[in-house]
Amino acid sequence: MIPELGHFALILALLLAGAQAFFGIAGAARGDARWQAAVRPAVAGQFVLISTAIGALVYAFVSFDFSVAYVENNSNSALPTFYRVAALWGAHEGSLLLWVWILSLWTLAVAMASRNLPVTLASRVLGVLGFVSFGFLIFTLATSNPFERILPAPADGRDLNPVLQDPALAIHPPILYTGYVGFAVAFAFACAAMLEGKLDASWARWTRPWTTAAWSFLSVGIALGSWWAYYELGWGGYWFWDPVENASFMPWLVGTALIHSLAATEKRGLFKSWTLLLAILAFSLSLLGTFLVRSGVLVLVHSFAADPTRGLFILGFLIIVIGGALTLYAWRAPLLKSQAGFEGTAREAFLLYNNIFLVLAALIVFIGTLAPLINDALGLPSISVGGQWFTRLFPLVILPLVALVAIGIHAGWKRGQLSVNRHRIIIGLGIALVVGLSVVFGAYGPGKWLTPVGVVLGVWIIVSSLFDPIDRLRRKLSLPRAIIGMTLAHIGLGVCVVAISTVESYTIERDVPIGVGETVALGRYAYRFESIQPVEGPNYDGVRGEVTVLRDGQPIAIMHPEKRNYWVQRSTMTEAGIHSRWNMNLFAALGEDLGGGRWSLRAQIRPLIDYVWLAAGLMALGGMLAASDRRYRALAAAQAGVTGTAQAPAT
Amino acid sequence: MNRFLIPAGVFVALAGILYVGVVHSPNKSTMQSALLGKAAPKFSLPVLGEPSRTLNSTELAGRPWVLNVWATWCGACREEHAALVDIARAQQVPIVGLDWRDEDDAAQQWLAELGNPYAVVAVDREGRTAINFGVYGAPETFFIDAGGHVQYRHVGAMTPEVWQREFVARLPRAGLP
Questions:
Q1: Which of B4, B19, B127 is the closest to A330 by Cβ?
Q2: Which residues in chain B have their CB less than 8 angstroms from residue A250's CB?
Q3: I need a labelling partner for A417 at 20 to 30 A (CA). Which of A482, A569, B104, B120 fits?
Q4: Is B20 an 8 Å CB contact of chain A?
Q5: In chain A, domain spans
Q6: B109-116: average pLDDT
């Protein structure tokens, strides 16, 4: 009964999404106040209904209702409660439901925060969001209904994919989706601006916090996925250029470009059509990410099976949404003229370079990810673009970008006035050279030639981004959240570049056969394989090794790598043993049982690897701070008293 | 030409490629099996309903056969069962059932109620044979040729379409009896 209620709620939500799209877009076009007034109630109703559907599915999971096919497929009576809830997004149907729910949440937030926007603009934004929601709801109901029953009910379920039975991966999809779906807001703002035929500074100011917030969630989501792959897949890397990872990285790159381009649009009225295009692109890539992972176009480590009807449906939806937006763009963007000019060393110019390099980077990832698919479609032999494509090309665009960031931070708007800040550039570079080179050659010794370059550039960014905040503090000027946020995010970028450059060069990895009591040496460290014991969990059994970490012969830590067999799905998962020190990770993962008490052991030392994820955290925190800047809140507060078609005050 | 049309043009080209990719992408339920083209794992298991009899995989050699992994606790197995019964009626190729980690009584009752498509059902109580076949979850269906090589693996419920396309189509090359 409860699952049917959920199903019914979803159907009602579809109807409301249709109403929201129609009254939002048509109401604004006709200037009909009553039609437009219907939009917000539809948003609220839709949120309540989709939440009801989610609640119904959670209830089915928690109460072991195996007569629901989706529950039967993704749960089991031995599955712990936490994972029974997380199993909601353990496969295709539930993930989609989560997707639309998050969209309804974002839409609700926009509806509540947009009371002070011009009525037609707000209606159009909400209408476009309703349209996207409508498409996803119809897709869910028509091809991927999570409430389908199997009767008679099976006695037990087939269990959640063991890959997903991990805390980091369990919370990874909601956060990642929050990022993906958040770009729908920027997309809706872009479409609304094109429908209005007007794009001004206040439009950019409204769009910025939403975009930055979505970008922050995406950063955390990507980092969580990478962290999970590190300790759960047992390979010991942090990034594999796997298509699923790439699918989330592309919207992130374009989203980063969008954030910067929006800044120029707001402050200087520049890059208007380019900003629109980036907003469309960021959301298109989010949709494509959903498409790549969900339609089974590419068969991957963690994309689940699906059928071609779904693929065709998503493709049709992509064509309507993206194709529609791009057609609108071709028609309306020429009307939106940028007003100002700028010099080649002005901040605007650096933002432009930033955009070019970020889009190039996204293009490299895009080609690398889709090349196998394109080859396949054109009947060429199936190829797989190896990591080499990415590892060779990516630094070529990222390192110049990083250098430009370090310089561009000091550039003023309109006229660069770089000469005024020349001393900052020189001092920054000097500090970076001294610190970077002494760290690289002092602490680690020679590695790949790119490493000292990367470390120096990374340190340079960190130092450069500190000049302005320190200067403001010294002059007792206010330090708004936008500045703190930007500084943190740029420091995050610097930390990330330093960490990746280091870990790429100075990782020690050894895969060795090892018996109990034996030792494997890794530089000044060594691992001693102490014992291996059987373990049993709630829904798995396996073995648990004990590995002592020795430093200069002295034991400093004990790690417990595990290998688990999940009963129902009969699959084996590794849980790496990791000992984290401030400057490195000691990593051990169990490989194969070689018989006779011997195991293959993957032993690694990765310097600074934790800082890659810390960097993502810094960027996300910076984004959140910037998105919550007083400017945006003051904007909302200032307009709270004014109803109707009030324009934003020019602050 | 209007330069603002360029993004739309690029998108149209890309959508075309994606369309071809979706339509022509190999059936996603063909999960990669390390066994494809290799000899099927050997087994020797008790026969359901005849406790004294043991089915040895060598008895099956010399003609193509199909192994269907199922269990009474598996929902999708119930879903595919009617299709299997229909398929078995055509008697194109013997279907051997592998009753995976199941109760014998429940399994016999299931076959009595829903019909028995299997030439013979081997009982894999501990799931060892299923592990050897690399079974990920029931139901799974394997096509094994006369030479004892695994030619195809289908993950998920069997349908008449999959049967025609992937199994019947392989018969002529599999060495009919």
A1: B4
A2: none
A3: A482
A4: yes
A5: 1-160, 175-415, 509-609
A6: 89
